[in-house]
Amino acid sequence: MATQLRLGSWNARGILQNANELKLFLKKHDVDIMLISETHLHTNLYLTMEGYVCYRADHPTGRARGGAVVLAKQDLAHYHLHTVTSSDTQLAAIMVETPLGEILVAAAYLPPNIPWNRAEFDSLADSRGTALHEALTPCSAQVLATGRPTHFPYNRQSTPSCIDFFIFKGIPNSVLSVREEYDLSSDHLPLLTTINTAAQRIPKKRRLVLPGSNIQRFKAELNSLINLNTQILSVEDVDAAVQTLLDQVHAAAANAAPAHIYSAPTSQRPRTFSPILEGLLALKKRLRREYVRTQDPTIDRIYRRIANRVRKELIISKRNATDTMLEEATADESSKFALWKLSSRYKRQAAPKFPVRLPDDTWARSPMDRAEAFACNLEERFKPFETASHGRIQRVAQILEAPLQMCKVTTTNCRLSVLRWAKRTPTYGNVLMDGQSEKVAADDRPPASSATHKLVRAGCQRRIGAH
């Protein structure tokens, strides 16, 4: 179990063109949460990272500009909070569960060409220069940065600046550390911070019966493992016995499953590159570090040339891996039926997205508009069905709303109730009622628990006592 929570931050200046490098960066540094700004994504562009969940906040204009993304590991215990997609702010936030408590993690992008003031950043806990200090001081927030420049503009006449940093609150300084890296291609250096706390992980689902399992072997293994002479004396013994039984069932299932089922998943297998690509990656990182130290234009030109070469080699490597997978795919068990899996994936029909018309005769263009149109349609279609007239419904409502009227219990009321009941149901035993005696069989007696029975008994006893 990892004892650290690793967060990365990077201004990508367009994430899709550097997606392959980002995948290598996430795997190399084992990043749990990656905060990316200036992603340049919109509704027609998709971003997927193997093993990560993507939370986006694109620019509201729908063009490739601005934007923020949070990439969180799939096994990390977290949940999505909200997104802000205004013209001057794009923010995506998640909540992570740790032993220190819940930690809110957010990626934000604020365009530099829009004037900032303290009032805007009181709710975002972010600002620039003096406004940053004025906004963070009242809320006791702090800045976590390397203290060295992280932005090196392509225009060499511009001065490098430190505009990439983390803002934190409520986390002890002793558990935080930050450093810059040189692996990604952009005019901004990525930052990597470490929180010395173990984030909660979502346990992997354990499947009991796998395809191709030997059921007879599973039964034999389970019979040999189960011990029926388990002594249970307390609640703790019951819990321990149940856990032992579950472990024995899973152990028997693992022994009965075919060997190829338990091979390492594709995401956990080490990815090998050609010696040329590995050498180019190392050279690119060394040149970037040297340029940051010396600001030599010659080194910058060489670095950009090597970065373009690395980008092309990564595309070629991915293409070769795909070709190799297609060549080795067969329809038998030797390749785990890879050909059938690939064909079923590509033959799957995409769910059509039919155009939806809104009540005002305009077309729904966003998921929120489609949801609103669907809600209006349901409201129009499903209405209460009146089974009675309007007057009867009003009378029933008046009766239900009227206060409960109870009459006063008197001897006369009891006698009238007894007489009314006696006309419908025979009495039992010898009962004196208006000078007459009546004998009833025991089988005709009313239930002893009925209210009428109690009322009759009370009336009879009163009459007998009076005589």
List keywords for this structure.
467 residues, alpha+beta, Deoxyribonuclease I, Chain A, six-stranded mixed sheet, three-stranded antiparallel sheet, 13 strands, 15% strand, disordered C terminus
Structure description:
The strands form four sheets. Strands 3-4-2-1-11-10 form a six-stranded mixed beta sheet, with no helix packed on it. The protein has a three-stranded antiparallel beta sheet with strand order 5-6-7, with no helix packed on it. A two-stranded antiparallel sheet has the order 8-9. The protein contains twelve helices and 13 strands. Residues 120-127, 261-270, 427-449 and 463-467 have low confidence and may be disordered. Strand 1 (5-11), helix 1 (19-29) and strand 2 form a beta-alpha-beta unit. With 467 residues, the protein is an alpha+beta fold. The longest helix has 32 residues, at 297-328. Among the domains are: 5-201, Endonuclease/exonuclease/phosphatase (Deoxyribonuclease I, Chain A), CATH 3.60.10.10; 215-256; 351-380, no CATH class; 411-466, no CATH class. It has helices at 19-29, 118-121, 129-136, 215-225, 235-256, 275-294, 297-328, 338-347, 367-381, 390-401, 411-424, 451-466; strands at 5-11, 33-37, 52-57, 68-73, 78-85, 90-98, 101-109, 142-144, 166-168, 176-180, 191-195, 431-433, 436-438. It is extended.
Secondary-structure map with pairings?
Elements: E1 5-11, H1 19-29, E2 33-37, E3 52-57, E4 68-73, E5 78-85, E6 90-98, E7 101-109, H2 118-121, H3 129-136, E8 142-144, E9 166-168, E10 176-180, E11 191-195, H4 215-225, H5 235-256, H6 275-294, H7 297-328, H8 338-347, H9 367-381, H10 390-401, H11 411-424, E12 431-433, E13 436-438, H12 451-466
Parallel strand pairs: 1-2
Antiparallel strand pairs: 1-11, 2-4, 3-4, 5-6, 6-7, 8-9, 10-11, 12-13
Pfam family, one: Exo_endo_phos
Organism: Drosophila virilis (Fruit fly)
Protein name: Endonuclease/exonuclease/phosphatase domain-containing protein
